[in-house]
Amino acid sequence: MRASSNLDLVARADLDAETKSSLFDVFKVGSKMLEHPTTRETLRLAGASVKAIAGCSVSAVYVTAEGRLIRYSGKANHRLDLLVEARAGTNGVLENGGPWRYALFFRETGKVRGAFVLQAAAEPSGDEMFLLNALAEPTGAALATAELLTRERRQARELRLLYEAQSGSNRTMAATIVRLNAHQAIRDSIVAAAGTGNGEVEIVEALSAITRRSVVLQDSFGNERAFTGVRGATSPSRMLVPDIQVSPAVLLSAEWRSTVIRSHRETLGVIGIFDPDDIRSEDDRFAVEYASAIIAVELAHHRNVAEVEIRLGRDLADDLVAGAGIVDTLARAEALHFDLSGSQRVVLISWEYPTPSGVDIGAAVRHELAAMRVPALISRRPDAMLAIVVDGHDLSDLHERLSVVMASTRGTIGVGGSATSEDLAHSFSEASRALHIRAESRRPYGMSNHDDLGLLRILDTSGDGVQLERYVSEWLGALVEYDRDHHSEMVRTLGAYLESGGNYDRTADALIIHRSTLRYRLSRIRELSGRDLTDPDSRLNLHVAIRAQAALRDNLR
């Protein structure tokens, strides 16, 4: 509450003795208030009447402004203001234990119009309190009338000013009507286009006709959904890319003015209009905004339908790797247009989270497999994405494609072996094994196919491959170190020798060296490794170590 006037409202003159404690005289005062009601005069009469009725002084006066009580007069007292506010428009004693102080509120049609804080040495009698409360009613009515008259006078002044500016307003109104009619025509055209069987394409064509410019619609991954060119214009490349560090989307084209399409803060796509000089009219901008709102509804609907299919596909994928009944799964796959009659593979994809791009890994996997034309059922596991794909498709660049979308190469993919729908649980196990081997290797990011793991299928690569590397080092360490220091080929020579079954001629031919050179190398191998190449156990362990080293080097790329 704040003071708005220093007016002392407590009248010094007493009413005549006959008016004291007279209800009739209270009504007469109320009539006087309503003759020419002003806030100042009303409060002056009320203050004089309060003193005449009960001998009270008025220590604070409040009036209502903008729906709340503010101090009108009286010495500033923040604590008193809080006590009055706490009464919430209900008459009553403000506090006990001191001088009698009473909040008297003035109401009209249930609304508080003002208030007095009355103060006296002793509480007034019952009759006096009755008269004080009776006085509050005409005072509230007079304050409300004064406020109404003040508002009417203000409105009269405003109307006069409005009348004086009417000619200019009429021109503005006419222009507004023209603009509204133009906008209505735009809305009608776009709504009519949306009502056709091919809504997105028709809306883009309608928008191009309205703006006389080339218009393109792309989804959130930059795939073109519709394009209408003007004067031989060509469709732009991807116009936005997610970027959580800058904004929900970063626009990439300078000549194409882009409007991002969103639904509940989710980016669904983008509308681009060709305007290199940025000279679109207000109507053009309105048309783009309205079209984007309509297309948002279309895309959201498609998204909802897709989400239902995704959920059904996810459930089916989970059941297949769990070994569900073949009859049930075949029927459900057919409903999703997924062919389970041939062979499939299980693919597991694990990626860092969160990714720099902010793109959901599930959406990225679904999008990239679709772009590669690989039919898939996709599910989200606690630690990886699961995809059941139709066998026979090349997945070799899947990791690279996902790395671009996720703006990160820190992902691991494991591919299981080919299997029928009845045996996908086995392919799932193989994919898990391939993923684990890759993740625990020295190069954990990339893709490993179970079919290509060779010896690593049965070797333990847990603990970051430490045990396997120790095994290789134990049997080949001296030869590897010698090759590194002398740029020789002792390990390669030993491998060729063991692959040929110990045959000198075949080994020399494979290495394209003379038999004497081979004898020298094998002699050095025996000296460096301390192994007897005629011992079956030594030959086996050396051969396994060479195979393991090759698998670690070549298969985990």
Automatic annotation (TrEMBL):
InterPro entries membership:
CdaR-like_regulators, CdaR_GGDEF, PucR_C-HTH_dom, PucR_C-HTH_sf
Please state every residue range assigned to the domain named PucR C-terminal helix-turn-helix.
491-548
Check the record and name the Pfam families matching this protein.
Answer: GGDEF_2 (PF17853), HTH_30 (PF13556)
* Stretches assigned to the CdaR GGDEF-like domain: 328-437
Question: Which first-to-last residue range defines the signal peptide?
Answer: none
What the record says about family reads: Belongs to the CdaR family.
Listed name of the protein: PucR family transcriptional regulator
